[in-house]
Automatic annotation (TrEMBL):
Region named Disordered: 167-224
Species, as recorded: Nakamurella flavida
Feature: compositional bias, Polar residues: 215-224
Protein name as annotated: Gluconate 2-dehydrogenase subunit 3 family protein
Superkingdom as given in the UniProt entry: Bacteria
Amino acid sequence: MTFPAKFPSLNETSFTDRARTVLIRVIRVAFPHAKVPDAPYERTADFILSEAKASNWFRVSMTQGLNSLDDLADGDFCHLDDERAYAVLKDIESTDFFGFIRRTTVLNFYDDPEVWAALGYQGSSFEHGGYLHRGFDDLDWLPDPRIEEYDGPEEFVAFAEKPGDPIVALPTDTDVPDSTQPAEPPTGVPDQVDGEMRATLSAEQGPHQGAAQAGRSTETAGVR
Protein backbone atom coordinates (compact mmCIF):
# COMPACT_ATOMS: atom_id res chain seq x y z
CA MET A 1 0.00 0.00 0.00
CA THR A 2 1.54 3.28 -1.05
CA PHE A 3 1.06 6.59 0.71
CA PRO A 4 -0.08 9.94 -0.78
CA ALA A 5 3.12 11.67 0.33
CA LYS A 6 5.13 9.32 -1.85
CA PHE A 7 2.99 10.02 -4.93
CA PRO A 8 1.55 13.56 -4.62
CA SER A 9 -0.27 13.26 -7.93
CA LEU A 10 -2.56 10.66 -6.35
CA ASN A 11 -4.07 13.38 -4.17
CA GLU A 12 -6.21 14.35 -7.17
CA THR A 13 -7.55 10.80 -7.48
CA SER A 14 -11.34 10.54 -7.64
CA PHE A 15 -13.56 7.48 -7.47
CA THR A 16 -14.92 6.19 -10.75
CA ASP A 17 -18.05 4.20 -11.55
CA ARG A 18 -15.81 1.18 -11.94
CA ALA A 19 -14.44 1.63 -8.41
CA ARG A 20 -17.99 1.77 -7.05
CA THR A 21 -18.96 -1.41 -8.93
CA VAL A 22 -15.95 -3.28 -7.56
CA LEU A 23 -16.65 -2.07 -4.03
CA ILE A 24 -20.25 -3.29 -4.18
CA ARG A 25 -18.97 -6.69 -5.27
CA VAL A 26 -16.43 -6.72 -2.42
CA ILE A 27 -19.14 -6.04 0.16
CA ARG A 28 -21.45 -8.66 -1.34
CA VAL A 29 -18.71 -11.32 -1.23
CA ALA A 30 -17.51 -10.40 2.27
CA PHE A 31 -21.05 -10.17 3.72
CA PRO A 32 -23.18 -12.61 1.70
CA HIS A 33 -26.92 -12.66 2.36
CA ALA A 34 -29.09 -14.22 -0.32
CA LYS A 35 -32.26 -12.53 0.97
CA VAL A 36 -30.77 -9.02 1.04
CA PRO A 37 -31.39 -7.09 -2.20
CA ASP A 38 -28.78 -4.98 -3.98
CA ALA A 39 -29.91 -1.60 -2.63
CA PRO A 40 -28.41 -1.95 0.89
CA TYR A 41 -25.09 -3.06 -0.62
CA GLU A 42 -25.13 -0.06 -2.95
CA ARG A 43 -25.97 2.36 -0.12
CA THR A 44 -23.17 0.92 2.00
CA ALA A 45 -20.68 1.29 -0.86
CA ASP A 46 -21.71 4.91 -1.38
CA PHE A 47 -21.28 5.61 2.31
CA ILE A 48 -17.80 4.06 2.33
CA LEU A 49 -16.75 6.15 -0.66
CA SER A 50 -18.09 9.34 0.94
CA GLU A 51 -16.22 8.58 4.16
CA ALA A 52 -13.01 7.88 2.25
CA LYS A 53 -13.25 11.22 0.42
CA ALA A 54 -12.83 13.04 3.73
CA SER A 55 -9.22 11.83 3.98
CA ASN A 56 -6.62 11.90 1.22
CA TRP A 57 -4.94 8.85 2.75
CA PHE A 58 -8.11 6.75 2.79
CA ARG A 59 -9.16 8.00 -0.63
CA VAL A 60 -5.86 6.97 -2.20
CA SER A 61 -5.82 3.68 -0.28
CA MET A 62 -9.32 2.87 -1.48
CA THR A 63 -8.51 3.79 -5.07
CA GLN A 64 -5.37 1.72 -5.16
CA GLY A 65 -6.96 -1.18 -3.33
CA LEU A 66 -9.96 -1.40 -5.62
CA ASN A 67 -7.76 -1.13 -8.70
CA SER A 68 -5.47 -3.89 -7.41
CA LEU A 69 -8.35 -6.36 -7.10
CA ASP A 70 -8.59 -6.71 -10.86
CA ASP A 71 -4.88 -7.57 -10.98
CA LEU A 72 -5.28 -10.11 -8.17
CA ALA A 73 -8.22 -11.61 -10.06
CA ASP A 74 -6.18 -11.90 -13.27
CA GLY A 75 -8.52 -9.61 -15.12
CA ASP A 76 -11.93 -8.73 -13.68
CA PHE A 77 -12.74 -9.17 -9.99
CA CYS A 78 -16.46 -8.65 -10.58
CA HIS A 79 -16.62 -11.64 -12.94
CA LEU A 80 -15.17 -14.09 -10.41
CA ASP A 81 -17.51 -16.56 -8.77
CA ASP A 82 -18.11 -16.22 -5.04
CA GLU A 83 -15.54 -18.83 -4.03
CA ARG A 84 -12.68 -17.37 -6.08
CA ALA A 85 -13.61 -13.80 -5.13
CA TYR A 86 -13.61 -14.78 -1.45
CA ALA A 87 -10.12 -16.27 -1.85
CA VAL A 88 -8.87 -12.96 -3.28
CA LEU A 89 -10.31 -11.05 -0.31
CA LYS A 90 -8.68 -13.49 2.11
CA ASP A 91 -5.33 -12.54 0.63
CA ILE A 92 -5.89 -8.85 1.46
CA GLU A 93 -7.86 -9.16 4.72
CA SER A 94 -4.95 -7.79 6.81
CA THR A 95 -4.55 -4.60 4.73
CA ASP A 96 -5.74 -1.18 5.88
CA PHE A 97 -7.79 -0.95 2.72
CA PHE A 98 -9.91 -3.99 3.50
CA GLY A 99 -9.99 -3.21 7.22
CA PHE A 100 -11.62 0.15 6.47
CA ILE A 101 -14.25 -1.55 4.29
CA ARG A 102 -14.96 -4.22 6.93
CA ARG A 103 -15.35 -1.78 9.83
CA THR A 104 -17.55 0.65 7.95
CA THR A 105 -19.74 -2.10 6.52
CA VAL A 106 -20.39 -3.73 9.89
CA LEU A 107 -21.49 -0.42 11.39
CA ASN A 108 -23.70 0.72 8.51
CA PHE A 109 -24.86 -2.24 6.45
CA TYR A 110 -26.48 -3.92 9.47
CA ASP A 111 -28.09 -0.64 10.50
CA ASP A 112 -30.17 -0.54 7.32
CA PRO A 113 -33.92 -1.18 7.86
CA GLU A 114 -34.08 -3.08 4.58
CA VAL A 115 -31.43 -5.46 5.89
CA TRP A 116 -33.38 -5.80 9.14
CA ALA A 117 -36.48 -6.85 7.22
CA ALA A 118 -34.56 -9.40 5.16
CA LEU A 119 -32.96 -10.94 8.26
CA GLY A 120 -36.18 -10.98 10.32
CA TYR A 121 -35.24 -8.22 12.78
CA GLN A 122 -38.13 -5.92 13.65
CA GLY A 123 -35.93 -3.02 14.66
CA SER A 124 -36.03 -0.90 17.78
CA SER A 125 -39.12 -1.34 19.95
CA PHE A 126 -38.76 1.62 22.31
CA GLU A 127 -40.48 4.19 20.12
CA HIS A 128 -43.31 1.72 19.43
CA GLY A 129 -44.07 0.92 23.06
CA GLY A 130 -42.08 -2.28 23.35
CA TYR A 131 -42.52 -5.79 21.96
CA LEU A 132 -45.49 -6.89 24.08
CA HIS A 133 -48.01 -6.21 21.30
CA ARG A 134 -45.52 -6.36 18.41
CA GLY A 135 -44.81 -10.07 18.11
CA PHE A 136 -42.63 -10.84 21.13
CA ASP A 137 -43.56 -14.52 20.75
CA ASP A 138 -43.85 -14.86 16.99
CA LEU A 139 -40.70 -16.96 16.55
CA ASP A 140 -41.62 -20.06 14.59
CA TRP A 141 -38.36 -21.95 15.10
CA LEU A 142 -38.70 -22.43 18.89
CA PRO A 143 -40.84 -25.16 20.50
CA ASP A 144 -43.95 -24.09 22.39
CA PRO A 145 -43.27 -23.80 26.13
CA ARG A 146 -44.77 -26.38 28.49
CA ILE A 147 -47.50 -24.67 30.51
CA GLU A 148 -48.98 -26.92 33.20
CA GLU A 149 -49.24 -27.00 36.98
CA TYR A 150 -46.93 -29.18 39.04
CA ASP A 151 -48.88 -31.91 40.86
CA GLY A 152 -46.01 -33.87 42.39
CA PRO A 153 -44.93 -34.11 46.04
CA GLU A 154 -44.07 -30.97 47.95
CA GLU A 155 -40.37 -30.30 48.31
CA PHE A 156 -38.70 -27.79 50.58
CA VAL A 157 -35.71 -25.97 49.16
CA ALA A 158 -32.86 -24.80 51.38
CA PHE A 159 -32.29 -21.06 51.43
CA ALA A 160 -30.12 -18.37 53.03
CA GLU A 161 -31.38 -14.95 54.05
CA LYS A 162 -28.32 -13.10 52.79
CA PRO A 163 -24.97 -13.93 51.17
CA GLY A 164 -22.65 -15.66 53.62
CA ASP A 165 -25.40 -16.99 55.87
CA PRO A 166 -25.55 -20.74 56.46
CA ILE A 167 -28.17 -22.48 54.40
CA VAL A 168 -31.17 -23.56 56.47
CA ALA A 169 -34.13 -25.69 55.51
CA LEU A 170 -37.53 -24.14 55.04
CA PRO A 171 -39.88 -24.93 57.95
CA THR A 172 -42.55 -27.58 57.56
CA ASP A 173 -46.19 -26.98 58.40
CA THR A 174 -45.69 -28.54 61.86
CA ASP A 175 -42.98 -26.02 62.70
CA VAL A 176 -45.12 -22.97 62.06
CA PRO A 177 -46.94 -21.72 65.20
CA ASP A 178 -50.72 -21.47 65.04
CA SER A 179 -51.50 -17.74 65.10
CA THR A 180 -55.14 -18.46 66.04
CA GLN A 181 -54.14 -19.81 69.47
CA PRO A 182 -53.22 -17.46 72.38
CA ALA A 183 -49.51 -17.13 72.90
CA GLU A 184 -48.02 -18.71 76.00
CA PRO A 185 -46.75 -16.29 78.68
CA PRO A 186 -43.05 -15.47 78.49
CA THR A 187 -40.82 -17.71 80.55
CA GLY A 188 -39.44 -16.22 83.76
CA VAL A 189 -42.60 -14.23 84.65
CA PRO A 190 -44.14 -15.33 88.03
CA ASP A 191 -47.42 -17.18 87.73
CA GLN A 192 -49.02 -15.09 90.50
CA VAL A 193 -48.77 -11.93 88.45
CA ASP A 194 -52.15 -11.51 86.79
CA GLY A 195 -52.80 -10.27 83.28
CA GLU A 196 -53.37 -6.65 84.30
CA MET A 197 -50.01 -6.33 86.08
CA ARG A 198 -47.96 -8.31 83.57
CA ALA A 199 -45.98 -5.99 81.32
CA THR A 200 -46.97 -6.10 77.67
CA LEU A 201 -44.11 -6.49 75.23
CA SER A 202 -44.43 -3.80 72.60
CA ALA A 203 -42.66 -3.38 69.28
CA GLU A 204 -40.28 -0.93 70.95
CA GLN A 205 -39.53 -3.12 74.00
CA GLY A 206 -37.10 -5.96 74.27
CA PRO A 207 -37.93 -9.07 76.30
CA HIS A 208 -35.73 -7.93 79.20
CA GLN A 209 -37.44 -4.54 79.38
CA GLY A 210 -40.85 -6.21 79.61
CA ALA A 211 -39.71 -8.51 82.43
CA ALA A 212 -38.25 -5.60 84.36
CA GLN A 213 -41.51 -3.67 84.02
CA ALA A 214 -43.42 -6.66 85.33
CA GLY A 215 -41.14 -6.88 88.37
CA ARG A 216 -41.66 -3.24 89.26
CA SER A 217 -45.42 -3.62 89.01
CA THR A 218 -45.30 -6.56 91.41
CA GLU A 219 -43.24 -4.61 93.97
CA THR A 220 -45.64 -1.66 93.80
CA ALA A 221 -48.59 -3.93 94.42
CA GLY A 222 -46.88 -5.39 97.53
CA VAL A 223 -46.17 -1.94 99.07
CA ARG A 224 -49.75 -0.87 98.78
